[in-house]
From TrEMBL:
Coiled coil: none annotated. It comes from the Bacteria. Pfam families: Peripla_BP_2. Signal peptide: none annotated. One of its GO terms (biological process) is cellular response to iron ion. PROSITE patterns: FE_B12_PBP. Keywords: Signal. The keyword Transit peptide does not apply. Residues 26-271 form the Fe/B12 periplasmic-binding domain. The keyword Signal applies. PANTHER family: MOLYBDATE-BINDING PROTEIN MOLA, VITAMIN B12-BINDING PROTEIN. It comes from Fluviispira sanaruensis. This is Periplasmic binding protein. The lineage of its organism: Bacteria, Pseudomonadati, Bdellovibrionota, Oligoflexia, Silvanigrellales.
Length: 271
């Protein structure tokens, strides 16, 4: 009798474990910062798909790939069994609408201002059922932003060169530009109507910045990247390059609106 009762209990436990596994949300992220948010919320075990450029944390690289950020594969997303898709600007709207028609929940994350950064973390966390965890991360981000804003204001001018050929930068009318505003640094792009404008060499010469921020060169270390990027900038400014401080920006932490933005804020403080 005891053996039968014991077996019955085990069967019930197994049933609820299977039911829980089947009902547990399955998440697909369509941008690197969204992948980072999911892992920061301790939901990595529920992540069943992400994009080819999702590379942090290291576990993100081994997650099933559903295609490119700007061209995700619908069939792969459906194959993953996704019940929730985290999306952002740049993801094709027609494909997101198609996923909605299949009953998949779409959570869109589109920060416009620096102040939106802690807000989006809390909103995503709430929608994914881990509100308290989101509040903790959001508080840390808010504290980092407050610290940046309360420090003595910097007066140097800068250009953040997101890429060269052509030269793309970032205006003050973005969440990233807003972070620099809090530091007091003067963005030579200013309040451009175009949030990520192409900057001409003529404009750069006329508005020479004190600092130019650049990314590392793929396949090169920091020192090699600095040499290569400085060489490119010298073609624009000639001998005036000596009047400009060229700085390599840490990979990804300053351009991904997610939990690692705290590291990006510390970098801005160091300038």
């Amino acid at each position: 009798m005891r053996s039968k009762y014991f077996n019955f209990v085990i069967l019930i436990i197994f049933y609820f474990q299977v039911s829980y596994a089947n009902n547990k949300q399955k998440i697909v992220t369509l941008a690197p910062n969204l992948t980072e948010i999911v892992f920061a919320l301790d939901l990595g075990d529920q992540l069943v798909g992400n994009t080819l450029i999702c590379d942090y944390p290291i576990k993100a690289k081994s997650i099933f790939k559903v295609g490119q950020y700007n061209d995700p594969n619908l069939e792969k997303i459906l194959t993953s069994g996704a019940t929730v898709v985290l999306a952002t600007k740049g993801n094709p709207i027609t494909k997101l609408n198609k996923l909605k028609s299949y009953g998949i929940k779409i959570i869109e994350v589109n920060p416009e201002r620096a102040e939106d950064l802690p807000v989006i973390i809390k909103e995503v966390a709430k929608k994914l059922g881990v509100e308290k965890k989101g509040e903790i991360i959001a508080k840390r981000i808010q504290e980092a932003m407050d610290s940046l804003e309360n420090k003595p204001k910097k007066s140097n001018s800068f250009l953040f060169a997101l890429q060269f050929n052509p030269i793309y930068s970032v205006s003050e009318e973005t969440w990233l530009g807003g972070l620099f505003l809090k530091s007091g640094l003067k963005n030579i792009v200013g309040k451009s109507v175009i949030k990520y404008p192409i900057i001409s060499e003529e404009y750069l010469i006329k508005n020479r910045p004190d600092i130019i921020l650049v990314g590392s060169v793929e396949g090169k270390n920091k020192k090699e990247s600095l040499t290569l990027q400085t060489g490119f900038i010298k073609k624009i400014y000639g001998n005036d390059i000596d009047k400009i401080k060229v700085i390599i920006v840490p990979d990804d932490v300053l351009v991904r609106p997610g939990p690692r933005i705290i590291e990006g804020i510390k970098f801005i403080e160091s300038l």
